[in-house]
UniProtKB/TrEMBL annotation:
Bidirectionally degrades single-stranded DNA into large acid-insoluble oligonucleotides, which are then degraded further into small acid-soluble oligonucleotides. The gene is xseA. It comes from the Bacteria. It catalyses: Exonucleolytic cleavage in either 5'- to 3'- or 3'- to 5'-direction to yield nucleoside 5'-phosphates. Keywords: Cytoplasm, Exonuclease, Hydrolase, Nuclease. Residues 37-125 form the OB-fold nucleic acid binding domain. One of its GO terms (molecular function) is nucleic acid binding. Residues 148-343 form the Exonuclease VII large subunit C-terminal domain. It comes from Arthrobacter saudimassiliensis. This is Exodeoxyribonuclease 7 large subunit. Belongs to the XseA family.
Length: 422
């Protein structure tokens, strides 16, 4: 029975009841025998399954029965020594060379006698261009399915960037092309340059670190990742998944200028703009000062023509308005309105006078009617009004008591009387 913490192998360990059960329980006073540790390590490693790994051959030492290879990770500074027996090497169609990219099926082996750990290679195969292309295509499809390449995620480039971040190789032609052509188009252009490894195991880490630094700088408006042409293996760092995701997460627009027209690493798909060459990147990032001045000149000339046409049209409209009679002789219109007012005033006066006369005649007629019907007129014709002392008018003779005092009103004046019985 075996303990997972490199414990005692009960079948192989000496029958001593005082031995610690696990490695964690050992102490200076109660240690394990070295043979027991070796047997447990070998037992543990023998149960470990074989694994396929990928790397680049950086050292190759051929012997009669075995070859000793140092394999380095393609994206990190990690190396591992492998032992490849001649039977495995002989299965290769072409001899293995330094710099080759391979996949190998390895299993750890522990040699108890000397305490040496070795990696036994059960199979080794070179990675061809077809395999690399197929792997890149599978990654491209997977990232595309996540939406990392969608146009909706791409950021627009500024019309005139204040400062351009440039990630490129150390003293490379790509850097010179970008900076020279950008300066020719816009002399005042400013760069923030990060010179990094653009191929090899450190390329992904250095490019990603430079991208993070430039993305964090507020004065950098756009970032260009540039490299000249190269083989498929040389451009593999720009199809690395970690770098692709870092570019997708950047908040600053990124321009990919990797290789030549035919080179299409995955960086081209995730970048906000793909330039066919570093020179093309310089042309796409900054405008041409001569072209911009020419556009400004054309715009000013067009605006001048539009203003001239508009002013001329408005001048003609004003001239037409001024030629109208109402503006050419404004007093004529005023005099006509004055004549109309005078005529209307005369008509109003005439109508009012006629109406007053008609009403005066009607009043006189009514006055004559009233006078004709008044008691005074009756008195003037010889009639008299007899009133009792209380002022009531006598209309019937029997209404007058005997010896009653009466007042008799005639046309001019009145006098008193005394009634006598019949």
């Amino acid at each position: 029975m075996y303990d997972e913490e490199i414990g005692v192998d009960a079948a192989a360990a000496p029958q001593r009841t005082t031995l610690p059960a696990t490695a964690a329980e050992t102490s200076p006073d109660n240690p394990w025998p070295l043979a027991l540790l070796s047997r447990n390590l070998k037992s543990y490693l023998d149960r470990a399954p074989a694994a396929w790994v990928e790397g680049q051959v950086i050292e190759l030492n051929r012997r009669a029965n075995a070859s000793y290879i140092t394999l380095r990770d393609v994206d990190a500074e990690v190396s591992l020594s492998l032992t490849v027996w001649s039977t495995v090497m002989n299965r290769l169609e072409l001899p293995l060379e330094r710099g080759a990219r391979v996949v190998a099926c390895i299993k750890p082996d522990f040699w108890m006698k000397t305490g040496r750990l070795s990696m036994q290679t059960r199979d080794i195969r070179p990675v061809g261009l077809g395999d690399l292309l197929a792997r890149i295509e599978r990654l491209r499809q997977a990232l595309a399915a996540e939406g990392l390449f969608d146009d909706s995620r791409k950021l627009p480039l500024p019309l005139l960037p204040g400062r351009i971040g440039l990630i490129t190789g150390r003293n490379s032609d790509a850097m010179k092309d970008v900076m020279r052509n950008a300066a020719l188009r816009w002399p005042a252009v400013a760069f923030e340059v990060r010179e990094v490894a653009v191929q090899g195991v450190s390329a992904v880490a250095e490019v990603s670190r430079a991208l993070a630094e430039l993305d964090a700088m507020a004065e950098v408006d756009v970032i260009v990742i540039a490299r000249g042409g190269g083989s498929l293996e040389d451009l593999l760092p720009f199809s690395n998944e970690d770098l692709i995701r870092a570019v997708s997460a950047a908040s600053t627009p990124v321009v990919s200028a990797i290789g030549h027209e035919a080179d299409r690493p995955l960086l081209d798909y995730v970048a906000d703009l793909r330039a066919s060459t570093p020179t093309d990147a310089a042309k796409r990032v900054v405008p041409d000062v001569g072209e911009e001045l020419q556009r400004i000149g054309h715009a000013r000339a067009q605006m001048r023509r539009i203003l001239d046409v508009m002013v001329g049209r408005e001048r003609e409209r004003l001239q037409h308005i001024r030629s109208r009679p109402v503006l050419a002789s404004p007093h004529v219109t005023i005099q006509a309105r004055a004549d109309d007012i005078e005529r209307l005033r005369g008509r109003a006066t005439t109508a009012m006078t006629a109406e007053i006369r008609r009403d005066a005649d009607r009043i006189n007629h009514l006055r004559a009617q009233v006078r004709a019907l008044s008691p005074q007129k009756t008195l003037d014709r010889g009639y008299a009004v007899v009133q009792l002392a209380d002022g009531s008018v006598v209309r019937q003779a029997d209404a007058v008591p005997g010896e009653a005092e009466l007042r008799i009103r005639v046309a001019e004046g009145e006098f008193g009387a005394v009634a006598r019985g019949n």
